[in-house]
Amino acid sequence: MSGQMYLAYDYPLLSVFWSMLWFFLWIMWFILLFRIVVDIFRDDGLSGWAKAGWLVFVLVLPFLGVLIYVIARGKNMGGREVAQAREQQEAFKSYVRETAKGAEGRPSSADELAKLSEIRARGDITDEEFRRAKELVLSDHRSPERAGAGSSASAQ
Prior knowledge:
Elements: H1 13-42, H2 48-60, H3 62-73, H4 77-105, H5 109-122, H6 127-142, H7 149-155
Helix pairs in contact: 1-2, 2-3, 5-6, 6-7
């Protein structure tokens, strides 16, 4: 073996520290670059040409472009991110409310059939009326466009 062999002690501790620091800064640079690109597309105040210009500037001259973008438009980056997070939270809350309201507002077909069975057992409706109401309930839960028909049949 005429080649020189490097061992762990050939790479001093300070060099390990500097390598880790440069690697960390390199990762932070890409995180900042991606956040700026996302902010360019998120900003509704910019026209399409302005977005294209900033994007070209940031991608062609990355260090200068990112530095100028942060100086010129960095003040509102956090505000746009918070506004977008609030919109997502409101959309989620609205979805949960609508889903919960839909589940509470309309009983399932099993509940409606159980009520119909109770009404028939009391003798308030005949077997023929029960059969027609059951068909309405089952057809109502198969086709969403007839949302109100099954609940009115069970109320009779």
